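Issue 218. Parser rejects a valid record. Input:
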Amino acid sequence: MLEVTITQDQDLHLGTRPRGTAPALTHTHVPGATLRGALATAWLRQHGLRTPTR
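Output the parser choked on:
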């Protein structure tokens, strides 16, 4: 198990997928995909992209 504390630096817009012209609903939590993307971005900023070895 991993416990994570997150501090936002910018506004969060956590809309769900809109259907047609209906107003977009919003999440009441940070979706896992958003968290994974934030962690991946932090990792890449610190470590950079992997270069293929042949």
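Fixed in the parser; the record now loads. The helical segments are 32-47.
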